[in-house]
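PROTEIN–LIGAND DATA SHEET

This sheet pairs a single protein chain with one bound small molecule, N-acetyl-L-glutamyl 5-phosphate, given as SMILES. Inputs appear in the order they were entered. The predicted three-dimensional arrangement of chain and ligand is reported afterwards as a token string under its own label.
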Amino acid sequence: MKAAIIGATGYGGAELIRLLHQHKYVEEFTLHSSSQSGVAISESYPQLTNITNQSLQSINIEQISKNADVVFMATPSGISTEITPAFIENGVKVIDLSGDLRFKDPNVYEKWYKKTSAANEVLEKAVYGLTELNREKVKNASLIANPGCYPTATILGLYPLLKNIAVEANSVIIDAKSGVSGAGRKASLGTSYCEVNENFKIYKVNEHQHIPEIEVALKTANNQLGPIKFNTHLVPMTRGIMSTIYCQPLASVSEKLLRNLYQQYYENDRFVRVRKEGEYPATKEVYGSNFCDIGITFDERTGWITIVSVIDNLMKGAAGQAVQNLNVMHGIDEGTGLLGAPIFP
Ligand SMILES: NC(=O)C1=CN([C@@H]2O[C@H](COP(=O)(O)OP(=O)(O)OC[C@H]3O[C@@H](n4cnc5c(N)ncnc54)[C@H](OP(=O)(O)O)[C@@H]3O)[C@@H](O)[C@H]2O)C=CC1
Ligand SMILES: CC(=O)N[C@@H](CCC(=O)OP(=O)(O)O)C(=O)O
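PREDICTION REPORTED AS:
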């Protein structure tokens, strides 16, 4: 198949290049930029020298539509809203990494992203691409709203629990941490070295745009769920997300039962690894891979469950999951191009 990457000069775009380059069914991909057409991608990313010597092309929708079977939108929020409808009209599949198409209700997007939403008919076509939850819908989709990075770690961490165990409706607390690549490549004061190094800071307190995305997905597991408590922190590391989740079950549960429940729920999901008793995953244990690793425990003293869920934000949190969805949409093995082990140390 033939692919095009719009936003190829960003971190999500560069990760897509790395993955599509090693994907045996992608015979060709083109790279598109709104600001650097004509410039070789290796000018932005010297590590891609001899991997691809392509020059960036402008974003010409008609030309891309003639060439590509599928377009990846690795662009900031607001761009897919403008561009994707034309690709859909031209019969080209789209996988959007941004938040533009993740909500069915346009008001939710407008409230949390503070931007104009895509039209209802586009939102209706979009399938929320958290592959493990929506595999059957992804199979038949022509438009994928790839999930956000924090939602991927958090929803995978909570879903089996909320589906199977009665919890205190208002007890879900999510303490999430991200590496700095989660903010993209664009320079900003808040992500500059001196602001981040040897520092640990909370940001977007009570107003993170991923709050409604997580709530909408979790309500499909338990519609009694109250508002979640969710906050995000910037950690001085490049990649990785850790979502530490606390939740109070209505009745005491055994740790063994919880682990069995998670293992059963994810038994056919090769990218979710449920850790054994007493083992909690670290971000480096999924670095550069498409895995989501989950540790779980119940504290009899407090009566609370703790779940730890980690991903690489650029892989399972963005480009990796986008390629996983590409595979499912095209009926090819879900792991194609994604089976590399995590990089460690
Ligand atoms: N980083 C992460 O971990 C994750 C990111 N995401 C989402 O994926 C998307 C891409 O993120 P990321 O790669 O990190 O972001 P970056 O900021 O690294 O890259 C975004 C790219 O979009 C392009 N762009 C900017 N403005 C426009 C425009 N007006 N029209 C077309 N293209 C434009 C730029 O390339 P150029 O100037 O060459 O056009 C830029 O390189 C975002 O929506 C982000 O929220 C989702 C999950 C995780
Ligand atoms: C570290 C960091 O800044 N991360 C970003 C993740 C952005 C993202 O994934 O946003 P979308 O919903 O538009 O995809 C954030 O917290 O906003």
